[in-house]
Write a structure and sequence with these properties.
Rossmann fold; alpha/beta; globular; seven-stranded mixed β-sheet; 308 residues
């Protein structure tokens, strides 16, 4: 089956592997191909929009919104130190806002960060694909709109100073159309923050097929590295300001569970295991941080873009 890279359009692509859904339990296998030019991993053939909508119909049954500030919103210094240990990628730690900053959390889910940024004077909105979640967010007094068209951001031109997507860009099947939309809704010199699984992570090689933090088919249609994101950004006149990576300890434990419990294909809903006990989590997180002091490419990639 012939293929070209959906990002850089190179024909130097080859079959990489087939992936099963180990986290939500959907039946089937989805083939991934790899681009030798930009390093992109991508599903081929790409799922259609009706297929994607059918997959997401059962993606989440949790319609609850956190009515209080997300954990750590009041203790800034403690939260940051904890995240240095846990590796959690939290937009509160690296997205600067000030009073009046117009911000969009695209793919906000239950909106754990909206109250935090609003409390700091930002004019923040969320966008979410699940109608029940949008209704719950609005009932909680949050400005969240429904994403009705997967190729369109439902806001006016030049609306935002900052747009962030936490673990969302890898789900978007038409990234070029989406980057054009990001450019449209951003003000001049507007900024974008992306967090996503890292195709170049050393843990991908360590865990192989059990690297479920990244191999989350059919929901992750792409797995990016910095070269692929840079190619995508440059095609739409964005500058890569900075990039870094870190492995959350929760991702490491998820990959370990996939390796240890091969018969479990619903890992996201699985009961807690011994890996989740505090006496195990703490030393495991410490070992992870020590190991990653020697590792450049870790599991979660964060990229800061600026509109040129």
């Amino acid at each position: 089956m012939a293929a070209t890279c959906p990002i850089c359009e190179s024909g130097a692509v080859s079959y990489c592997c087939s992936s099963r859904d180990r986290r939500k339990g959907l039946a089937g296998e989805w083939p991934f191909w790899e681009c030798a030019s930009c390093g992109l991993l991508f599903q081929h053939p790409m799922p259609t929009v009706p297929q994607l909508l059918s997959y997401y119909a059962g993606y989440s049954t949790d319609d609850e919104v956190r009515l209080a500030l997300a954990a750590g919103s009041r203790g800034e210094r403690l939260r940051r130190w904890y995240h240095r240990l846990s590796g959690d990628v939290d937009p509160r730690d690296f997205i600067p806002v000030s009073a009046g900053t117009r911000v969009l959390d695209f793919g906000c889910g239950a909106a754990p960060y909206l109250r935090y940024f609003r409390a700091r004077g930002a004019h923040i909105s969320g966008a979410e694909i699940a109608p029940a979640v949008v209704t719950a967010c609005r009932g909680a007094g949050l400005d969240v709109v429904l994403i009705e068209d997967l190729d369109r951001i439902p806001f006016a031109d030049g609306e935002f100073d900052v747009v962030y997507l936490m673990q969302v860009i890898e789900h978007i099947a038409r990234p070029h159309q989406f980057l054009a939309e990001l450019r449209r809704v951003l003000k001049p010199a507007g900024e974008v923050y992306l967090a996503m699984p890292n195709a170049r992570s050393v843990w991908r090689r360590v865990f192989g097929a059990d690297w479920v933090a990244g191999w989350f088919a059919p929901f992750h249609v792409f797995v990016y590295g910095v070269p692929a994101i840079r190619a995508l950004a440059q095609a739409h006149r964005f500058q890569v300001v900075r990039s870094w990576s870190i492995t959350p300890d929760s991702w490491l434990r998820l990959n370990l569970k996939a390796a240890l419990y091969r018969g479990n294909n619903r890992l996201d809903a699985a009961p807690r295991t011994w890996l989740d006990l505090p006496l195990v989590r703490l030393p495991l997180a410490l070992l992870l941080r020590l190991a990653e002091a020697l590792i450049r490419e870790r599991d979660c990639l964060v990229v800061h873009l600026k509109k040129c």
